[in-house]
């Protein structure tokens, strides 16, 4: 038998891409935070099932892209946030509330739909934890921690989408949302308790009803903006 007829050659480029995707995903999801050291080359080789040259090429690309840095004699580390990310953070903080809400509608709506399709039981537990936490804090009048719990609720939904880029985008958004929520909750005359719609969003994600999760998220953004 001619082995060339039964096996498909695996290109080295594909292996490098595989390693790149895995490393970027772990960094985006916060498994490795800025300042953290990555596992050693032998550890990465074992975990990812590839050779040393593949690991080195992937790390070289990520170093060139500004995501990692190699410290001689110490190892490879995740770099701090880049200036471009900080600029986005500043832009969101000064952006018109209407524009922020329009982007929230697009981002959070589709994120909730993806989460409904891809969530795990562990994701549901995390989302439910922050749902209960935000309700408890609101009832206690602890508005500062309530805002943090509310953002954590939506970030948990983003993580349930299993899309690392979505997690990055929502993380960047969270700083601007924190400022927006802080100002809106102090406006007692216009503040609306949206706990009920948050509970329905959780239920839709639990029931894997993507369309309803999206619609309820649109409703929630509308409540925040009205």
TrEMBL record:
<dbReference type="Pfam" id="PF00392">
    <property type="entry name" value="GntR"/>
</dbReference>
<protein>
    <submittedName>
        <fullName>FadR family transcriptional regulator</fullName>
    </submittedName>
</protein>
<dbReference type="InterPro" id="IPR036388">
    <property type="entry name" value="WH-like_DNA-bd_sf"/>
</dbReference>
<dbReference type="GO" id="GO:0003677">
    <property type="term" value="F:DNA binding"/>
</dbReference>
<dbReference type="InterPro" id="IPR000524">
    <property type="entry name" value="Tscrpt_reg_HTH_GntR"/>
</dbReference>
<dbReference type="Pfam" id="PF07729">
    <property type="entry name" value="FCD"/>
</dbReference>
<keyword id="KW-0804">Transcription</keyword>
<keyword id="KW-0805">Transcription regulation</keyword>
<keyword id="KW-0238">DNA-binding</keyword>
<feature type="domain" description="HTH gntR-type">
    <location>
        <begin position="13"/>
        <end position="81"/>
    </location>
</feature>
<dbReference type="GO" id="GO:0003700">
    <property type="term" value="F:DNA-binding transcription factor activity"/>
</dbReference>
<dbReference type="InterPro" id="IPR011711">
    <property type="entry name" value="GntR_C"/>
</dbReference>
<dbReference type="InterPro" id="IPR008920">
    <property type="entry name" value="TF_FadR/GntR_C"/>
</dbReference>
<dbReference type="InterPro" id="IPR036390">
    <property type="entry name" value="WH_DNA-bd_sf"/>
</dbReference>
């Amino acid at each position: 038998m001619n082995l060339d007829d039964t096996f498909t050659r695996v290109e080295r480029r594909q292996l490098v891409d595989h390693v790149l995707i895995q490393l970027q995903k772990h960094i985006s999801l916060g498994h490795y935070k800025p300042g953290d050291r990555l596992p050693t080359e032998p550890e990465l080789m074992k975990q990812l099932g590839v050779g040393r040259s593949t690991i080195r090429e992937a790390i070289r690309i990520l170093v060139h892209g500004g995501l990692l840095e190699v410290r001689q004699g110490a190892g490879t580390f995740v770099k701090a946030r880049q200036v471009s990310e900080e600029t986005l953070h500043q832009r969101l903080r000064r952006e018109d509330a209407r524009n922020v809400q329009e982007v929230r509608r697009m981002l959070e709506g589709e994120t909730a739909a993806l989460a409904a399709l891809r969530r795990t039981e562990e994701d549901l537990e995390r989302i439910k934890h922050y749902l209960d936490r935000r309700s408890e804090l609101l009832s206690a009048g602890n508005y500062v921690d309530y805002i943090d719990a509310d953002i954590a609720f939506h970030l948990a939904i983003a993580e349930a989408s299993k899309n690392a880029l979505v997690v990055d985008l929502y993380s960047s958004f969270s700083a601007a949302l924190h400022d927006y929520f802080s100002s809106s909750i102090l406006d007692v005359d216009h503040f609306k308790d949206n706990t009920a719609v948050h509970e329905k969003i959780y239920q839709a994600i639990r029931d894997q009803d993507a369309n309803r999760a999206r619609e309820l998220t649109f409703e929630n953004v509308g409540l925040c903006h009205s």
